[in-house]
Amino acid sequence: MKRWVPTREQLLASKWLRPVAHRLKDEHLWHLDRHSVARAVGIGLFFGFMLPFAQFLFAVVTAVFLRANVAVAAASTLVTNPFTFPPVYWLAYQIGSWILSAERGEVVAQALEAHVETLAAQQGWWQALWHSIQATGTPLLLGLTVLAVTSSVLGYLAVWLLWRPRAQHDVASHEAGSGET
Q1: What pTM value is reported for the model?
Q2: What's the CA gap between 7 and 138, in Å, rounded?
Q3: Cα-flanking dihedrals φ and ψ of residue 80, to 5°?
Q4: Any stretches that span the bilayer, and where are they (predicted)?
Q5: CA–CA gap between residue 48 and residue 6 (Å, rounded)
Q6: What is the DSSP code string of 113-172?
Q7: Same domain, 29 and 77
Q8: Are residues 136 and 49 in the same domain?
Q9: Are 74 and 158 members of one domain?
Q10: Domains held by the chain: number
Q11: How many alpha carbons fall within 13 Å on the CB side of residue 139?
């Protein structure tokens, strides 16, 4: 995992983060503790699902202001990548269509298909593709919002509930307590 998470030095050297680089020097942003990591996972998952571009930048800036672990927030945005992008966006569209109404979604899909075929015949496939992408906007945006919020909350709760103190700390505490008896 450490090889995929950007180092503090890499983040400080990023030209995109130059406006907030002075804030990245805060030591609390780099500690791996339950609170900081849970917030960071929630932030990273939110921006990973919500934004198709600049996810890393928004996650890092938000992590700085919410005092979450910056590296974990940046790494958590990788939930969406070139391999997961198509299924995630398909799922988001399905969720958005379902929320907006299954019947309406089916009617919209049939109308969209007919519209794309007509545009393709009249204007060419590129313009038809662009129009079809625009027509999917509302269900897709709604689905992405649902995925972003849900995954953010679940990621936060998962880290919060599953976080365990390091074994060395428990052993040292136990030994200190048993020496007194």
Answers
A1: 0.68
A2: 37
A3: -110, 130
A4: 40-66, 140-163
A5: 16
A6: HHHHHHHHHHH-HHHHHHHHHHHTHHHHHHHHHHHHHHHHHHHHHHHHHH----HHHHHH
A7: yes
A8: no
A9: yes
A10: 2
A11: 23
Boundaries of domain holding 110 = 85-140
**DSSP letter string, 59-97:** HHHHHHHHT--HHHHHHHGGGSSTTTHHHHHHHHHHHHH
Own/partner contacts of 111-114, CB < 8 Å, gap of 24 or more, are 112/136
Q: How many residues does the chain have?
A: 181
Q: Looking at residue 27, what is its pLDDT?
A: 75
Do 127 and 119 form a contact (C-beta atoms < 8 A)?
A: yes
CB-based contact 36:75 (threshold 8 Å): no
Residue 171 lies in a domain: no
CA dihedral angle for residue 141, residue 49, residue 54, residue 163, rounded to 10 degrees: 150
pLDDT tens-digit map of 144-163: 999 999 999 999 999 999 98
Render pLDDT for 92-135 as a digit per residue (tens, 0 to 9).
988 988 888 755 556 666 666 666 566 556 666 556 556 666 66
